[in-house]
Amino acid sequence: MSNNTKGLSPKACIMMAIGGMVGSSIFTLSGVTYGMAGSAALVTWFLAGIILLLYALNIAELATTFPKSGGVYVYPHEVLGKTPKAKSFAGWIAAWSWLNVSIFGTTFSAICVSTYLGSFFPAVSNSKVLQILIPIAWIALTWFLNARSANAFGKIHNKITFALLFVLAIYIILGIVNGDTANMQPFVSGGMGATGVVAGIPIAMLGYGSIIAVASFGGEIENPKHNIPKIIVTAVVGTVIVYCLILFATFRMTPVDELVSANAQYYPLAFALGSVMTGKWGWIVSIVPLAALLALTTNMSIMIMDASRTIMATAQSGFLPKKLGEIHPQKNTPIAALSTVAVICVIMSLKPDFISIIINAGSICSAITVAIISVTLMTLRKKQRTGEIPEKGEFQVPGGKLFPIITLVVIVITLVLLYFGDGGTTAYIVAGVWYLIGVVIFLIKNAAQK
């Protein structure tokens, strides 16, 4: 998919990005970080948003320089390495890293659909069959939405996002009005205290990760060189505001000790609202699963789109079967790549017990992807100065190398702290195996070309 002057409008893309980010993480992972750091998890999510904003600025410069779909593969491939083999490896390892996040994230969200429904409908929680069928049904739904043209998908997706933001606004108002600031004391608490504030950042970063999707379908955006920076920055800032308001409302309604003792880390919003809205007002709690279903749908839709475009780009470069790089002539959508992602997600959803491993391994791969993109931007600047890369984007990140370097430093710190957190060792082993598989695929591909 190449650059074009007609395509998705900036407004549509902003809503798509916000809808993709305001997804499963705030309804589930916010409870995990709350258990780690107490109310100070507000700082965790704010810092994660700042890091992703820095990262988003890096992406914006790369996207305006190379306005093509499949950006996570495209940027390292175009910039890093001096030989074709080195360029292919750089692009592939970045794509493989992000595929972990997008595919695991889609699967995680699909599992969370049945988890949320199960917390309100005993028939779901008591039925193993429904717990398997519901994630599959939601994966099929998001496949169907994405199988349409980009414009048709964008219109449907944004209507769902508007409905989601309306319901969340009601939740925020109820939390602020009925909550108590005393529930947020002490501000720094939880199982890890101050350390948990920083250790939770990679987990919270997953909540903003869908911003990469803007780069993945950059070639489908109207006037991408001009619009991508505005879309990315506006979407990230808007999502940070929404997240902080949701967390503030949630923490006002329930102390962290009660949340943890009830083992409600994976449905904190429902638990929090249920603790203050009782009696004749208890029915209002039903807005949480409604919002969760809307959010999970928008989140899954964007992640599965992201994964399909990444696979499309790698297939078009010869890494994967050529069929996966084909574009449907009428829909202008990579149907084969999209279907492959959906099938993988369905298979993975059959093992819901691996949910904590999915979260932590995805956190590691997300952080590594951010690091790769930061290195890519610094290398791009160097090669532009020497004339090795003639292309220049319409947007440049201010401060020279400052933002990419700050991003790298923070990523290294958070990765170290994540290792010492609960399940950190297992997560690193899973992530290591994932990257090992990626390297093996690369070696097989190169051997086949000889």
UniProtKB/TrEMBL annotation:
Q: Matching InterPro entries, A to Z? A: AA/rel_permease1 (IPR002293), APC_superfamily (IPR050367)
Report the subcellular localization: Cell membrane
Highest taxon of source: Bacteria
Membrane topology per the entry is:
Multi-pass membrane protein
- Pfam families recorded for this chain? AA_permease_2 (PF13520)
Q: Where are the transmembrane segments?
A: 12-34, 40-60, 89-117, 129-147, 159-177, 197-219, 231-251, 281-302, 332-351, 357-380, 401-420, 426-444
Q: What is its main location?
A: membrane
Keywords of this entry: Cell membrane, Membrane, Transmembrane, Transmembrane helix
Query: What is the protein name for this chain?
Result: APC family permease
| Classification of source organism | Bacteria, Bacillati, Bacillota, Clostridia, Lachnospirales
